[in-house]
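Example record for the data management plan.
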Amino acid sequence: MSKWRISFLIIIIFFLGSGVLARLFSLQILQHDVYSQLAQDQHQLYQTLFPERGEIFLQDLSVSRRVNTDQYYPLAINKEFRQVYLVPKNIPIEGRQELAEKLSSLLDLDESLILERINKPDDPYEPLKHKVSREIADQIEELGINGLGIAPETWRYYPSDSLASHLLGFVGVNQDGRIGQYGLEGYYEDELKGTIGFLQGEKDTAGYWIPSLDRKLELAQDGTQLVLTLDQNIQFKVEKELSQAITAWQAIGGTIIVMEPKTGAILAMASWPSFDPNQYGRVEDIDVFLNPSIQKVYEPGSVFKAFTMAAGLDSGRLTPDTVYHDKGKIQIKGSYINNVDEKVYGDQTMVQVLEKSINTGAVFVQQKIGEDIFQDYVQRFSFGQKTGIDLVGEVSGDISNLFTGREINLATISFGQGITVTPIELITAISAIANDGKLMRPYLVEKMVYHDGEEKKTEPEVIREVISSEVAKRLTKMLVSVVDNGFGRPARISGYSIAGKTGTAQVADLEKGGYSEETIHSFIGYAPAFDPRFAILIKLDEPQGIRFAADSVSPMFKRLAEYLFNYLEIPPQ
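Corresponding structural encoding:
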């Protein structure tokens, strides 16, 4: 009996020991990493360090000249706001209705929405509103209500509201956090967001960092600052002119771009309708966020005749004095092409073809140079290609009709029908003529300033030589004659030479085919013509009560050019 008890005891001890050993093996070997991490969490401190987003600045050339140093003004900054939040479980039931009424008035929120969030049982945290001003936050804090909290937070802020909104884009929120969307915010997201850092060290039993022990510190690197080529005064003037034109002619939209032909630098870019990036969430139609300058295409109409003429001159197939006999219309197989109002002009030089914007004259030029040469020059001017401007989402125009082999398509493209372009493509192309035939890449960022103070300046980039310098000068003289003697006359300014071309393009009817009664009015030009400081594109979408671009946008070009002559201190010639 005694031996049996001893054997039984040994067996129990064996099983108990085996269980202890198995548990120790599990804890120390199999689950070592888990418990090691738990232990580290009790003694180690790990803190993520967040960078400041890079800010965006524009220029003020008038102040820079006055003080003889560069002057920049903020277009996108980081601003501290307040967040209002609730701890519903701490808010007394009897005071919830009254609190909802007060908060609804202060925060401009629906009372029922506030009540819905207050009445969530056992909810430890319920955000109510972001981007609350300091003044409102102070009033809420004065209520002294338990369960109602205020916390600081930093958000992207645009001090000039809707100024240059299409260029900027905005900082939105997705599943990964805040992210730049559209415009410069989207294109330069990687540069603007900066680099996250961390602090790792030991902490005491109270949770405080022990500075005497080893630590690892990786400082956050703030985002890169962008200094734009934009001038705030030119941008403001352009937006004002565009807004007034939209109202005056009841247009559904419009775009104005101002560029330096010799560098490709954008001095102003504006489109309507616009939006306030501070309130982007209130925009109902997200199509408004698209930048029409780079993301919407249209048929350019008669402004395209300048490029058809450039091909004719540079190919050597004709000269400004080449005479064309106009009969008012041209038949191509079963189709007829007419001049506007079916006018007949008789003998006309190539200069007069541009001055009077003769459709059949443009067809004459295209037929004179032939299909291959015409295709070549259209592509040389980069139509149908992205310009490479530093904005997110750029699209290219459609020149596919150029390669169908149909003679009628080549003919209509010669005067800007059956081909689509973006405004940035068009002003880049006309700037090539202004710049002695050299096509430049357009750009918006003059320089980037990194977190350590190092600067990187954008160097102007020549894409290609489209036409010879000699031909560019010859064509410039012809375009000056358009303003002095042709449909561009309303753009004339005494003492200055201005090269330009108007365009009144029919709007394609995408449902029924053909063209509708609506039109797009445009003007492209540059000045001073033989030493250009600026090029301007103006486009009005479907203006009402006015028939031709010569009467709607040519006067706008004159007002903008007069402003730029004065602002940039360009003396009369």
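Summary line stored alongside the record: DSSP finds 20 helices and 23 strands in the chain.
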